[in-house]
Give the backbone structure.
Amino acid sequence: MCGIAGFFNAGPRSLKAGGPARSRLQPMADAIAHRGPDADGFWSDDDAGIAFAHRRLSILDLSPAGAQPMEDHSGRYVIVLNGEIYNHLELRRRMESQRERSGWFGHSDTETLVNAIACWGLQATLESACGMFAFALWDRSARRLTLVRDRLGEKPLYYGWANQTLLFGSELKAILAYPGCDDRLDREAIAAYLRFSYIPEPATIYRQIRKLQPGHLFSIGTESDAAEPRPYWSLEDVALDGVRQRRREPYVDLCEMVEATLTDVVGSQMLSDVPLGCFLSGGIDSSLVAALMQRTSRNKVRTFSVGFEDKRFDESGYARRVAEHLGTEHTEFIVTEDDALSLVPDLTNIYDEPFADTSQIPTALLSRLSRRHVTVALTGDGGDEVFGGYNRYIFAPNVLRYTSVLPEPVRKMAGAALGKLQFAGTREKSSAYAVASYLGLPITTVDKLSRVGAAISHSSDAKRLYRDLVSTFVDPAAIMLGGSEEAAGTCLSNGADQALGAEEWMMAMDSISYLPGDILVKVDRAAMSASLETRAPFLDRRVVELAWRLPLDAKINGRIGKRILRDILYRYVPRELLERPKQGFAIPLDRWLRENLRDWAGSLLSRDQVVATGLFDPDKAEALWRAHQLGKDNLGHQLWTLLMMQAWLLQHRPRSAG
């Protein structure tokens, strides 16, 4: 796990025209030093116009033999890699058995990857490699630069232009450190941010900088100014192939198959030359990862959880009981409200562009605290998208089934009535919260009622229903000045729309949008800000491809999601330790905005400040703030989305005009 950056002058001029390469590389590398605090490395070819920088977080092969940038043994290729190739030892054995490689300088996965590319070619190597990665590859022979990002988007990779110079980096701040970088804002991206609370791929907050999408590569030579990214792997293709080639084995055999695959994957992800552990929330996904780690390990596995003083949001007790049953070496961090609130000013620097998933706060705290003990942590991320765990996969199809036959006026009345229930829940001792508690629902359910009500109003359309369910602002144009949502985010093709049922269509959409745009951004930036590597076994391509070939009822069965993961986990952990409503990594945001964060938030959303930043309608922003403060509605998530944008603008005012 590292940070990479570099540039390529694709025009006729060499690097010499812009001064020494190192003078431009150093600030780019320094900007992402947190991603690799152990060492830095630089390489350039002035005549070819190419330069690489690398920040190293040493995980495999701590010796100088693992340093980057790295050449293959023939000297044709140069690579900088961020990530891990989990099956790199298998790839080494293949090269050795084919007599394509015998001697090795070290035992790093980077050396394996670059030599596999030299032996088999890039496409064949990508088809064989399992891992999370973002890398830049220079081909000296073809004088061509190729940028590559892993299949699901675990590792970030940005690219943009400064005149004829292509820039790339693991984070936006690396690219912005290059002199002359165009940092004009992208108003369409901001409108999309208001809807989703993150900026969806491939857009960024800046017009001239893009995210390389998951499963894509971007290749450019000296005469290829019009190069475009292209996919080398497609989640949509995997989903469609899976639907066409469903596995027909008995359910018990499918359980054995999934458990065996997950066990192999977890074992491969435990390969490390530094201390390693596991995030443990006590939920299905992280508990299964911890159980398989403990089964694989000869020693006690280190597990980590974070809890809050506010007992309504504290789930650390669940994790503790699972850890005790598994026999892990468990560390529990109970953070105070002051701990959490003190992190808020750092969020815009950690996340680089506006990002408003409120679970970013506990994720960052857990990462910082875990880093005191380990350098690598496995997580349960991806289990929901891959195995059908989100409540909307159960709720939305039922809504479509039961309300699509209703006349539109009746649906709108039902949606409005449900939304009004949220207004009864704006105070923590209200009847709505009491009902949710009585029904065994998480406290966060009440705050989503207006969103669910809006979704029901449009429930005859599956796409619109899904969009409303995942939207923070259902109509961003109503609050934003001069913005539009043209072509926001990644979409599935018409073929997928027709071939996939509502549940699997939503799973596929989440996998290509919400997962890389929100979940993986949240974890990567939080962890890497603490120089901690995280690994997600559920996102290994072997797990994903197998999961999509399972029959739907192995994943979603009635009102139960992640059925097969649950049944595998019950072999290790008693059912009674795990059965509870899914809440997520929640914080008491609504109360904070009325109390401890009120002054900070009120200042950012004051009329003068909103007018000064020039993005939002000050009357609409003031109305949201007043409604929340007066207890007329719980608008914490909408306000947080505005606040993260306002806070970001104060710290990252564009230098470029426009």
Summary: The two ends are 36 Å apart (CA to CA). Confidence is low (pLDDT under 50) at residues 435-441. Residues 588-658 form one domain.
